[in-house]
């Protein structure tokens, strides 16, 4: 309980940036369609927990330097899986409730979810070989 309160306090003090940089648009390539931003708890339930495909969940924050390195690297690796896995991006400043529910105590935190259950997890930056191994383990390749 004390950890949850500390996380809530920490998240309330974090500076909030814009949701997306001005002028940034999302492409329609296969890689981009497999990556999406979680809008709210209901969206998370529908698109992550109830997903028929495995989902990588990237808990990140706009102010997090390592997140800015890991995010694009992870998106690239998910795109290489050609639709076998999806990627959900969750901004912890906008979705504190999800961060607390999934016990995210540091960012970046990445969860591997299959059939609504967390089956693997890592915290921090990984290189492309480590990300590839993480994804292959998730999809069972």
Automatic annotation (TrEMBL):
GO CC term, one of those recorded: mitochondrion
GO biological process, one term: cell redox homeostasis
Entry keywords, A to Z: Disulfide bond, Electron transport, Redox-active center, Transport
Keyword Isomerase: no
Gene Ontology MF term list: protein-disulfide reductase activity
Presence of the UniProt keyword Transport in the record: yes
Domain Thioredoxin: 14-140
Similarity section: Belongs to the thioredoxin family.
Name assigned to this protein: Thioredoxin, mitochondrial
Source species: Calyptomena viridis (Lesser green broadbill)
Gene: Txn2
């Amino acid at each position: 309980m004390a950890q949850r309160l500390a996380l809530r306090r920490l998240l309330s003090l974090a500076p909030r940036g814009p949701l997306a940089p001005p002028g940034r648009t999302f492409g329609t390539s296969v890689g981009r369609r497999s990556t999406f931003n979680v809008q709210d708890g209901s969206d998370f339930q529908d698109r992550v927990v109830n997903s028929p495909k495995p989902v990588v969940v990237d808990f990140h924050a706009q102010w997090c330097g390592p997140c800015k390195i890991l995010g694009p690297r992870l998106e690239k690796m998910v795109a290489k899986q050609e639709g076998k896995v999806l990627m959900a991006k969750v901004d912890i400043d906008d979705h504190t409730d999800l961060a607390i529910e999934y016990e995210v105590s540091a960012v970046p935190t990445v969860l591997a979810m299959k059939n609504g259950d967390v089956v693997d997890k890592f915290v921090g930056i990984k290189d492309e070989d480590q990300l590839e191994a993480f994804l292959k383990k998730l999809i069972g390749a």
